Amino acid sequence: MTAELAADTPNRLVLSPFRGLRFTGAADPAAVISPPYDMIDHDQAQRLAEGDAHNIVRVILPELDEPDPRQRYRRAARTLREWRDEGLMTLDGQPALYVYEQRVPDGPDGPGALQRGLIGAMLLPNSADGGPVHPHEDVVDAVVQDRRSLMYALGANPEPILLAYQGEGAASALVERTAEQEAPLVEATGADGVRHRMWAVSDTAQLAAVAEDLAGREALIADGHHRYAAYRELAALGRAGTEHGLALLVNTERHPLRVKGIHRWLPDLPAAHAVHEAQQWFTVERVDGGYRGALDALEAADRDAVALAVVAGHDAWLLTDPDPKLLAEHVPQDRPEAWRALDATVLHHALAVGVWSIPDTAQSIRYDHDARSAVTEAYRHSGIAVLLRPVPEATVHELAAAGVMLPRKSTSFSPKPATGLVLRLLDEES
């Protein structure tokens, strides 16, 4: 379907079958997959790349092999083409939707989990408000441009975004029936113990039933806002195949996602100065136990009130009760109360800008999914970490349905799909 035809398609949730590009010549499938590009720090990326010369991380993070920013995307495209020429990756013979399963073992973050969903080519909504697909976070333009340039050079969507919907029906039934009764197309267990399995479904009657089921539904973008924005920018260029983007769709009524907070670290901000300034506008309480004590303090804080934790090395403080005058001056008043009361909103608009005079940019406020890593990076860069609680999922849905974006990197939904199990070419004949 061309971009012109897509513009005439009624706004509905469409997950189309496609011919997946997969590693079929890899001796160990687990050796060639990786976490999503934005979940990998430099050291982990190096380990993945050194562990197998054909790990997909070399495609999604081409700077590992090409330090020149002007050549990175070409290098990624050349790598993908070489793997195809060598027979390591092949294109499936017929279009399919791919049932995908993840089994997460018990661990320090909590009990294990089972997640199942459908990977397909999501038709991009043609309306400005997103139609049936609801983003919930703002994005960083530079990251969107990076992902758009990578996908344009590759001629492919290398990793799916994660979509959440709710409701039983033909799509959910197909997922469960396939996973319970069929032998998987591929199976891999990563170093983290997560087991990944995938099946291809190409039966036309089953695909038609899925299409009918999804047509009236809506979905929340749980993960992949930058990739989704990049999809839309690619589509605006009019290139064939860009009216769709690769997506994993999960029925969270059956397989609930976990929501975690994403932490911040601010370089070149001395802790003594930061805490002293914060004390003028917040209730500040010293916390014992370093970052772990800070996380415990956040967990114990009033869920209906603002709470932030500042950590510098082994020192930690809990910040609560922001002065209403500070909030009135620095937090935009034209947004819903649920947005104005978010910890991340108060951090970015009131604390960073209003108290610390730190600009709200990706260079001045960095992000890390792991609290310990955020504290470590802050220490390395003579700054502080600010630890955040997860946003309640109900709040995410409420604001997304109202078309209100959360501050960028406000939530981390998991489990996230592995990268490298299946890729989508923009032109399946190429």
What can you tell me about this protein's structure?
By secondary structure, the protein is α+β, with helices and mostly antiparallel strands. The chain folds into 2 domains: 3-259 and 414-425, no CATH class; 262-389, no CATH class. It has 15 helices and 21 strands. The strands form 4 sheets. Strands 1, 4, 5, 6, 8, 9, 10, 11 and 12 form a 9-stranded mixed β-sheet that branches. The chain has a 6-stranded antiparallel β-sheet with strand order 15-17-16-19-14-18, with helices on both faces. Strands 3-2-21-7 form a 4-stranded antiparallel β-sheet. A hairpin with a 2-residue loop joins β16 and β17 (315-320). α4 (72-85) packs parallel to α5 (141-154), α5 (141-154) crosses α8 and α11 crosses α13 (343-355). It is globular. It holds the Pfam family DUF1015. This is DUF1015 domain-containing protein.
Rounded mean pLDDT score: 92
Alpha-carbon distance between the termini? 16 Å
The low-confidence runs, each spanning 5 or more residues with pLDDT under 50, are 1-8
Task: Report the sheet with the most strands, covering strand number, pairing sense and barrel closure.
Answer: 9 strands, mixed
Radius of gyration: 22 Å
- Roughly how much helix do the residues carry, as a percent range? 25-40%
> Strand tally, please?
21
What structural category characterises the helix and strand content? alpha+beta
How large is the count of helical segments?
A: 15
Report the sheet-strand fraction.
15-25%
* Gross morphology: globular
Domains (count): 2
Organism: Actinospica durhamensis
Pfam families: DUF1015 (PF06245)
Protein name: DUF1015 domain-containing protein
InterPro entries: UCP033563
